[in-house]
Amino acid sequence: MLVLVAVLTVIATGDPRQLGWIALLAVAALPAFVARQHPILAPAGRFAEVIVTGFAAGSIAAASEGAAAGFRAEAILPYLAVPLLTAALRRKATEGTALLGVAAVALVAGGAVADPRTVLADPGYLAAGGQWLVLGAIVTFAAEAMRQFLQPAEATPQPYAEATRLLTQLRSVARSLPGATLDPGGISEHLLEELRLAAPGHRAAVLSASGGGRLVVLAQTGAERVDWETTLDADSAIADAWATQQPHAANRSQARTHRGGEVSSLVIPLVAGVRTIGLVILETDAAGAYPPAVVQSVTEVTDPAALRLEAALLFDDVRSLATNEERQRLAREIHDGVAQELVMVGYGIDNAQATLPEGADETAEELRTLRGEVTRVITELRLSLFELRSEVDRNGGLAAAIAEYARTLGTSAGLRVHFTFDESTARLPAATEAELLRIAQEAITNARKHAGASNLWVTCTVDPPYVEIEVSDDGKGFADNRPDGRYGLTIMAERAERIRGRLKITPRHPSGTTVAVVLGTPPRRDSVRDSVSAPEGE
C-alpha cells in the first residue's frame, strides 16, 4: 500500500517532496507492524497512521494544480484502509470507530493547515475525503460479518453424543488408574501417604467442599481423631488458604479443640485451574516445622494431586446425579403405573363385594382376603416410593434422614422405634451419606418385613470420616431359607464396600438381629460434638 500511494502521489502532484509523507507513514506504521500484539504501541501506531494520512491529503490537495486539485487527495487516502482493516480483523470495533473519527478530524485539520481558503473550500477535496470515510466505515463494520460468512461452519455435536463421548473417555481413564477407581476417599488417602515422605506430621487430613459453605473430611491420619475446623467463615488458616489459594502456615492447631503445647500447622489449597477444590492440612507437635523449603516440597506433591481429586469429585457428582435421577424416575413410573392399577383393582374388588348375592359367604370371604392382600401390596408400594424419594438433606444431615425413614416405617408396621444419635457438626461427602442412608433403609426394611419384631433400635454415630450406624430388632433373626433377605444383605454389603466400609451382622441377645455398618476408625472420645439422644420410644 505504501508503494501504491507513493506512485499515485508523484503522479498527482509531480512533486517528489511530497514523498516525505510516505516516509512519515512508514515510520508511523512501524509500531503496529513490529509490536502488533502490544496493547498500547499497536493501537498508537494505527492512530498515527490515520493522522499522518489526513494531513498528507491536505498537503497533496494544496500542491496539486488544476480544477480537480482537491480530488487528487485520493492519491494517499486509500491508505486509510490499512489501519481500519487491521482494527476490524482484530475485532476491535471500538478502536475502529475511534479511528474513523480521528480520520475525519485529521482531514479537516490537514486541509486547514495546507490552505483553508483553497483546500477546505474545494468540493473535490470534501468529496474525496467523504468518499474514503464511507469506505472506511464499510471496512470497519462489515469485516466481522464477512469473516463469519466466509468461515466454514463447524459441525456441532449433539449434546447426548458429546456426553456419550466424554463418558466413554472417562470410563477408559478410570479403568487405567491404579486400582481402577475414581474414589475421592481412596485418592485422598494415597495423597496423605505421599505427604508422609515430604513433610513431618503427627496429624493430617484432606478436606473438600460441600453444601452450606462447609468442608467435609475425605481422609485423615494420626494416632487420634481430630475435630478439624470445617467452616470457611472462621478466623483460621483454613479459611485464609481457601480464599487466597496460597499455602498458610500457623503456630496453632486447625482443630476446634486442642490439648495445648507447641504445634505447627500447614494448610495447602488444592487448586485445579481457577477453582479451589480442597485443602490438605498437616500438623506436628513442634514449633517452626514448616519452613519455605518444606512448603515447596509439599506443594510439589499436592499440585498434581489436585487434578486427580477434582476428577474423582466430578465423577462422584455425575454418578450421584445419575443415581438420584434414576430413583426419581422409577418412583414416578411406579406411582403412575403399577400403583394406580392396583388401586383400580382394589376398587373392582370392592364393587364385586357390594354386588354379591345373598348366601355367597365363601366367595365374600375370598374377596375380603384378596382385598386385604391388595391393600398390603399398595402399602408396600407406597413405602417403596418413600424409600426411593428419600434423600439426605444438606441442611438436616444423615441422622435426620435415617430418623425420618425409621419413624415412617415404624409407624406403618406398629414398631416401637428407639433412636440414639451422636452426630458431629462436620459432614460426610454427599455420595457417602447417600450410600449410608440406603444401607440403613435396607436394614430397617428387613426388620419390618421379616423379623416379626416389636422394637427397633437405631443408633447413628457420625464424626467424619468415621461413621457407625447400627440397626437392631427383637425379632426372630435371619433364617437361612429366606432368599429375599439374603439378597438385601448382598446389596448392603456391596454398598458398604463401595464406600470402603464394613458391614457386620450379629445376633442380638436374647432375640433378634443387629446390622451395623462402620466407616473409618473410632473417634477420640474427648472431641466436641453435637449429641442428641432421643428418649426411648420417640
Automatic annotation (TrEMBL):
Signal peptide: none annotated. Residues 431-523 form the Histidine kinase/HSP90-like ATPase domain. The keyword Transferase applies. Keywords: Kinase, Transferase, Two-component regulatory system. GO terms for molecular function: phosphorelay sensor kinase activity; protein dimerization activity. It holds the Pfam family HisKA_3. It comes from the Bacteria. GO terms for cellular component: membrane. This is Histidine kinase-, DNA gyrase B-, and HSP90-like ATPase.
